[in-house]
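Sharing a chain and its predicted structure for anyone who wants a worked example. Both blocks are below, sequence first, tokens second.
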Amino acid sequence: MKTQEIPKNISKGLIPLAQRKRKFGLKFRTQKKKTALVYCEKQFGRVDGKTAAALVRHSEIYSIVGIIDSSLAGKDAGEELGGTKSGIPIFCNLKDALHQLPEVPNCYIYGKAPLETSISSEERLLILEAMENNMDIINGLHQFFSEDQEFAQKAVKHKIQIQDIRKALPLKDLHVYTGQISRVNVPVIAVLGTDCACGKMTTAVELNKALKKLGIRSVLVATGQTSLMQGAKYGVSIDALVSQFVVGEIENAIIEAFDNEKPDIILVEGQSAVSHPAFMGSLSILKGSQPDGVILQHPPARRFRCDFPHLVMPTVESEIKLIESMSSTKVIAIALSHEGLTEEETGKYLQNFEKQLQLPTTDVLTNGSQKLVEALTDRFPQLIPFPHRKILEILPRIAAESVQ
């Protein structure tokens, strides 16, 4: 039997997401949110389930109506992440979800971010089943579903879209480093970390929201597939790029954000860690963004690198020294992940790090972003419009009075 080729005119959904966003711009972002079911079998709330967790916490593109994870079926997604009830149920499987939901969701999102580069045969069948139920497929893996013959033909048959978030633009449309980053005259802050999947993106997203609430025009530049799924307008999944273009694409995304949005500040999502032997993302971000400051994310309870049980975690002190020795920037604040810690233990770590490092330290999921905002406005006072300066000045007094 002759193998059929993937149809050339398959559907607009097979255009890489990054390309669609650049082509259609703001129109792409202002469309009504699509409902989505997120697949995260046996990983929700764990390290490899970070994509699903991030979408539950924040998404400007999708309205998450359910999670698939048989090990947590019947529970609430928000509560499983240590927060309040979200109203997002966790289902045993796809059939269970479609039976219980009032209508078929618009999208099926592959919500795991494993070290492996391909899906299992069981996961493949679920994707085909989702297509047969006329659900668009959103994929954040390095394995591109749009280039899979069976998936592509199924997409045409059911008139649905496949979006490979990590799929880069053609080489002719990619950028090398130019040095034009030097004309960006607003603070650029990189949110880096000591490891993979330790909360860098969550801190960047929460800080971005907090700054905007104060009337500060903040823009978040994405460097990974999950933040692009959440709706970041600028950025690219850097780990899927040819190395020649990584630094240039980061620089270009920041310049685009600067030129188009006229922001007061630009936040850049971090990847992995400068010290991590397996990945180059953070070093490329330092080079491409030339940041005016770094917020460093750290999970104190983690003893070994994520997915690398023989690699001991670095200390915050060693990571700061490495970052500051490889660039002209300074670490200006610490953000902690309370992963594996009790509330009391988290509090002790926060106090100890502030005392030892003399840097403002917080956990944005439990204590909010106030300390990070204050660290930024102390260093860059031009950020805050005059009325808000008075608010920031009295916040410590109000907090002290409430404790008394």
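Comments welcome. The chain has two domains: 12-164, 173-403.
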